[in-house]
Amino acid sequence: DTAVSQTPKYLVTQMGNDKSIKCEQNLGHDTMYWYKQDSKKFLKIMFSYNNKELIINETVPNRFSPKSPDKAHLNLHINSLELGDSAVYFCASSQQWGTDTQYFGPGTRLTVL
Amino acid sequence: AQTVTQSQPEMSVQEAETVTLSCTYDTSESDYYLFWYKQPPSRQMILVIRQEAYKQQNATENRFSVNFQKAAKSFSLKISDSQLGDAAMYFCAYRSPILTGGGNKLTFGTGTQLKVEL
User: Fold this and answer.
1) Paired residues of B60 in beta bridges
2) What are the tens digits of pLDDT across the range A38-72?
3) CB atoms within 10 A of CB A92
4) Option in A41, A44, A100 nearest B50 (CB)
């Protein structure tokens, strides 16, 4: 059973395009996150949702818009893609807002040409 | 803001030997959580071990154990009886106890690439 899944695993696109990454967790968790891992493998939080409500938005450009249709899903839409958006994007979840342990999805490698 | 430092970009260990990965952090908080995550070439982030700062006892998970020195703000990971499957990037991470103001997030170090040699 896959706990946290992401689609697609790989995404190659042209500059200026709009793309979405989807995340689903079947753990029954309330809280979900998006992290970005850059080319130097540095991981940084982008967003966090708790019970479908946006809680954390870490100085991410407006071109990035997360959406949580329900507690099990957190999608990331990116408008007007730029070369610098190339990275691995990880979705994660934790049981509740105050729960410390986060479980990660397999990541989506986005390449912008 | 909290920072996490991993001063060893790369480490090597012989199979069956023991290796220790270093991590230090900076915080003014007294209660927090620390983690080690493993990222193999598959790219999956796998939780290795966690430590609650209010617990003095060092966490242990099979061949993985930590040396948590709260006063020194140090959180090293010891891998005993290293196996080829341990080869991966290891990340140290910090989580604040504060749940407001963006506190409920993981702050990661820059990672240590561990190579396991035959």
Assistant:
1) B65
2) 999 999 999 988 888 888 788 789 999 999 999 99
3) 24
4) A100
